[in-house]
Amino acid sequence: MHASLFITCYNDTLFPETGRAVVRLLERLGVELDFNPSQTCCGQMHANSGFRSEAFAQAKRLIHLYRDTETVVVPSSSCVAMMRDQYPGLMEELGSDSLRREFETLLPRVYELSEFLIDRLGVEDVGSYFPHRVAYHASCHGVRALQLGERPYRLLAKVRGLDLAPISNPERCCGFGGTFSVKNAEVSSAMLAAKLQDVAATRAEYCTALDNSCLMHLGGAMHRQYLGMKTIHLAEILASTESDSERFPVEVSR
Amino acid sequence: MSLDGPNRVILDPRFAPPFPQAALPVLRNPQLRKNVAHAIDVIQTKRGKLVAEKTDWQALRTAASAIRSHTLENLGFYLEQFEEHCTAAGGVVHWATDAAEARQIVLDLLREEKATEVIKIKNMTSAEIQLNPFLEANGIGVIETDLAEIILQLGEEEPSHIVVPALHVNRSQVREIFARRMGLKNLSDDPKELTNAARTYLRQKFLTIPTAIGGANSLIAESGAVAVVESEGNGRMCLTLPRTLITLAGIEKVIPRFQDLEVMLQMLARSATGERMNPYTSLWTGTTSGDGPQRFHVVLLDNGRSAILRKPRQRQTLKCIRCAACMNACPVYRQTGGHAYGSVYPGPIGAILTPQLMNMEHAQSLPFASSLCGACYEVCPVKINIPEVLLELRSQVVNQERKQAGRIFDPMYIGLLVAHFLFANAGRFHAAQWLGRIGARLFTRKDGWMHSLPSVGAKWTQTRDLRGLPSQNFHEWWSQRDIRRKKETK
């Protein structure tokens, strides 16, 4: 099995440990990986901020970069949701026929990480060990756009040592919403406060998700408030094993 | 709670402050936030149970969506059909291009009736055209008969929800308003007692005022019938006791057949109030000699709707049946309530409808008042893809900004253009990452986190920290690993 990684702009810049965890995890499962360092962004930030033509240009660039790949794995459900929900409209409005065809053949080969593990590789137990109490935040794009459903829970259930803590009101948004978090900073913070109450009530040590964007939001507030909880991408939990030299979460030097 | 000064609630998009600013007084009002969260939690729980018991809910959504879409595709045909049948049954149909024309038609009709007072059924369209202040300025007293509307009218409050307009007011506040305005000193906050107070107040009005204004949930094209659904029966009073009835409805309210109500009413009651069936469903066709109002007028309001209809990506906005499920599900509305939206249409549907009704000349902040979480689309009984329309409207607002000179002073606007320039080329992107890492060091504290950032970043760090930038990006790690591996294999 061969797969190409799309590590997305903010994961490359801010959360390299997530990409590294994906590499460790998938290689452990026997997947041969490649990564094209020319990749930048899927265009979601621009599309969601109303910059349609810019978003289209970025989408076009991504399609060209990945057109010859066998399978694309993306450890970010909102970026996959961007491709599934917004690319078709952008292609219809601004794309050429040939680009549209390229996109249509590429899209079915794009997988969010948990989809790739369960639907493509057919595994639930990926040999992980993570002896902590963990709360899973079901991000909006994962739940509603990608309909990930039970996939992340099935993966978490097979992690040895992990104590899964359910979050109340799991379907409720954390208030990040990309540029919404600064354009409507106060409302976003009110939503965050409400979400954080539910997350903190779990008394977990870690809050995990399939989107580092939500985790950056939640984690930023946890750090500000000395909450005694950290965020960690699900890939890092799944990458952790009892014997690995590289235990996650890795401390990234800054 | 209708505060004066900077916190005054303005529900006119032409004058309301932008959403982020209008939300501030609400965010600092614990009573209001508690009232809103409590009320929508109750409705949401009821709705959740009743939707879950319908095994064919998704099929019903598809059917309701198809009925609404089909009607909109053929709106002219069905409206003319409605007019023909309503007229044949004794009704008089009036067409109003905009709010001013609709208000004038209603005023002229009331003057013909020599009305000095009028009773009203709760009706969003009349709020949209700001009918009450207009009639009052022209010497006609308006008496709302919906319990929530009475609370708002007597308390001089503004509505904050389209189905439960006084949702932000709690029981003890209702007691205070009724005690003060009805002169009932010993009134308690027992719901039964409060309802009785309203009933006594209303009965008098029903029996003495011979003219009523109402709305419509559906206009049925094949028969010319009008349907109104409600919970209290006060609407039924207005539909039966008066001599003259004026129905004010948006042109999108028409549905083709009586049979379509089967789908629409199931969706509406469950979505709006979490009931299997609404308590009162009134249907009438024109006038009937010796029974009910003898003079019946329908004012069909366009007010920007046909302009929305012309735009394929936005047309779905008009499928709305005003159930408010979107605002009940919305995590933004849950925090801000309705007043922050600066319009009689709050919540996700308001965020797309209001700017469109304003021809995108006002309320430009509303399409951005959403985290795009998709909860609204998930619950919408007629499958309006609200996030999709929000994005379309956002792009129209940005296109307006592109023409404004002031845009170069907007750090957000400039930031997004710079980001686009960087994303277009990996070399540039990587150079910017490198520069950003150096710049971020200035703000990174010993704990490795940024606690206070300038400009747009300050909006982030007002409530959250940001982890310092890592010394090695993913692509750098990957390249180094690649080099290492190649060496090893040599």
Report on the architecture of this protein.
The complex is a heterodimer of chains A (254) and B (490). Chain A has 254 residues and is α/β, with parallel strands linked by helices. Chain A folds into two domains: 2-120, no CATH class; 133-239, 3-Layer(aba) Sandwich (Rossmann fold), CATH 3.40.50. Chain A has helices at 9-14, 16-28, 44-48, 52-66, 77-94, 97-106, 113-120, 140-145, 151-157, 180-183, 185-200, 212-224, 234-239; strands at 2-5, 32-35, 72-74, 110-112, 133-136, 163-165, 206-209, 230-233. In chain A, the strands form two sheets. Chain A has a four-stranded parallel sheet with strand order 2-1-3-4, with helices on both faces. In chain A, strand 7, helix 12 (212-224) and strand 8 form a beta-alpha-beta unit. The longest helix of chain A has 18 residues, at 77-94. Chain A is globular and about 50 Å long. The two termini of chain A are 35 Å apart. With 490 residues, chain B is of the alpha/beta class. Among the domains of chain B are: 70-306, NagB/RpiA/CoA transferase-like (Rossmann fold, 3-Layer(aba) Sandwich); 411-489, no CATH class. Chain B is 50% helix and 11% strand. Chain B is built from 22 helices and twelve strands. Chain B has helices at residues 19-27, 30-52, 57-73, 75-88, 99-112, 124-128, 131-137, 147-155, 171-182, 191-208, 234-240, 260-272, 305-309, 325-329, 331-336, 347-357, 375-379, 386-401, 411-423, 426-441, 456-461, 474-489, and strands at 91-96, 117-120, 141-144, 211-214, 218-220, 225-230, 244-250, 254-255, 280-285, 295-301, 449-450, 466-467. Chain B has a six-stranded parallel sheet with strand order 1-10-7-4-2-3, sandwiched between helices. In chain B, helix 9 packs across helix 10 (191-208). Chain B is elongated and about 100 Å long. The model of chain B has no long low-confidence stretch (mean pLDDT 96). Chains A and B meet through helix 1, helix 2, helix 3, helix 4 and helix 5 of A and helix 1, helix 15, helix 17, helix 18 and helix 19 of B.
